[in-house]
Fold these 2 entries.
Entry 1:
Amino acid sequence: MGSLEDLPLRPELRGRTPYGAPQVPARYRLNTNENPHPLPDELLVDLGAALGHAALDLNRYPDRDAVALRADLAAYLSRTSGEAVEPAQVWAANGSNEVLQQVLQAFGGADRTALGFTPSYSMHPLISAGTGTAWVDGHRRADFTIDAVAAAAQVREVAPDVVFVTSPNNPTGTAVALETITDIYDASSGVVVVDEAYAEFARAGTPSALTLLPGRPRLVVSRTMSKAFGMAGLRLGYLAADPAVVDALQLVRLPYHLSSLTQAAACAALAHTDALLATVDAVKAQRDRIVETLPSIGLTSVPSDANFVLFGRFGDASAAWQALLDHGVLVRDVGLPGWLRVTAGTAAETDAFLTALGEVARDHRTSLGD
Ligand SMILES: Cc1ncc(COP(=O)(O)O)c(C=O)c1O
């Protein structure tokens, strides 16, 4: 077998490692921010029927423009945000990762720059590299919030072609105020992507950037069915933006990128939106329980509007990660010194996590305030 070193690989990809949380066997897997609740029975029945129906036409290519699905997604966004979103404003692909890749294919690329406020979702710089787009780290405060004035100044200075604002942010859970997003938008002449993969878990009073779309033709809001909808295996992500942005993405998307089975399954799932999202409150309750319990074991967390919590602080986060794994609980070491990230699971999973953490915290925590 040959080696990567010997291949004529693009220089900017040399030495990189593929994205992915370690898929380590563990009794409690709380490392990839999935929704732990199984799909409702009535949806499983409808999914079977919808897939069976779509299978009858599998000799044909799918609807290239996913018209029915985009109408269902627009209806969902309009209903939940209070902002009228038209099907022509919506675009869907295989996970929001593919949506973001298409955005970078259209608006990034050679001699272009993307900027995102780190620490944030590590795929943003990776997809940038994959599309030949230069990457610049945007600054956050020590508490992981974004300083609107400093962010706008940095955006003005760097003049990126694409700006990523992740709200709620992964891995910190931090929501970004709408005024901060508008300040960044006003400072930029590029496309501003608000990655709202976790929007449905936001606490009351945290509005979506969907409300900012009117009059902002360079604003893009991306969403996914992988998190709150509990359908990570479906691979369905989408965005809302000005229809001209959707036209631009159609220049770079592969023809027939979204299979008829995916489109049919997503439409069937969206018909059960209320039942699917019924688990969101249960997940939020476990998230808030984790946050409230941490101080009693000498640990702290970052305020979270997502379905996970960044918790610490540890003298050696990797050692604490291993100690939790030794107790059967797999969390995510996101590479932030002193911090680990845990997904809010079921009540039983949270019990197991908090019990294990109680046992390992004494040996690994720093004293609060360090
Ligand atoms: C902030 C953020 N955006 C996008 C994604 C990608 O989601 P998907 O491709 O499953 O839609 C994730 C997944 O973890 C994420 O954390």
Entry 2:
Amino acid sequence: MPSERAKATIAVAGAGTMGTGIAIVAARGGAQTIVFDVDGQRAQVALRDMRRFLERSAELGRMTREQAEAACARARATSRLEDLAGADLVIEAAFEDFKVKAGLLRSLDDVLRPEAIVASNTSTLSITQLAGASKRPQQVVGMHFCLPAQLMKLVELTPGLLTSAETLAAAEAHCIALGQIPIRTKDTPGFILNHFVIPLNNDAIRLVERGVAAPADIDRGVRTALGYPLGPLQLVDLVGLDTQLRLCEAFHEVTRDPRHVCPHLVRQMVAAGHLGKKSGQGFYRYESTGTFGA
Ligand SMILES: NC(=O)c1ccc[n+]([C@@H]2O[C@H](COP(=O)([O-])OP(=O)(O)OC[C@H]3O[C@@H](n4cnc5c(N)ncnc54)[C@H](O)[C@@H]3O)[C@@H](O)[C@H]2O)c1
């Protein structure tokens, strides 16, 4: 049964790949869920993808049909920021761009209740700097979900310099109530997981670049020998080659670590429109596009 905190109202701001997955986690976990995007059509597509994912989960026996229907009924979509006024927690998953996120945080100050918490799903930006854009930096926290959020349990929780202990504890309680597994990290670029994942992905891409092995063999090797659920090239296709490029660039900008330099092959694939699963072609070819098959 969802706990009291899961009955909270959670808004997800930015209804792209991550926002849609996070909204599934929230609605499935028992929260009243508002999916907000500046692009109203994007918000509606996210709601449709959420419904499809939940229905498919029921078909696969991962939840009952009643549970899926109840989760769908808890979710709504909007492009009006005022509709977030009653949220207890807003998880922003807008573009990885400081100006965009800072602008969103500033606008949220005008509509949210004083006690509401704002979490950022940023992968590379400083939570302390983002919180500086808000009038209530003590109620801003990092909440970094892993892709695909609707299937991955881990959430990296990051306090900024001014985040209060109460906000961090509340964010942790929200994660647990939704069935997620939180770990705490300092406010440092890439937090914990990307320090492993980005170099691994880049190494795998460079093996393809050098013609050492086919993507399927590299992925099979990593899955079989290291026990990962997805191979690195499958993961990059799911993340999107364009997102991988932006992520590497942003990460390298702050770390200057050569392992974070984006391989040339990724730039070529992006230029050719081979963006991974969302475009139907990446390291693999896909019959159906989109990232929300259960
Ligand atoms: N894709 C990944 O693998 C991954 C993993 C973990 C974290 N993240 C982080 O999650 C965030 C979102 O990434 P994504 O891949 O879902 O991006 P995306 O491009 O798929 O979606 C971003 C969405 O934000 C919306 N948006 C832009 N400005 C907005 C605003 N002011 N208010 C509300 N919505 C706005 C866009 O319309 C778009 O729908 C980024 O911070 C990214 O670093 C991404």
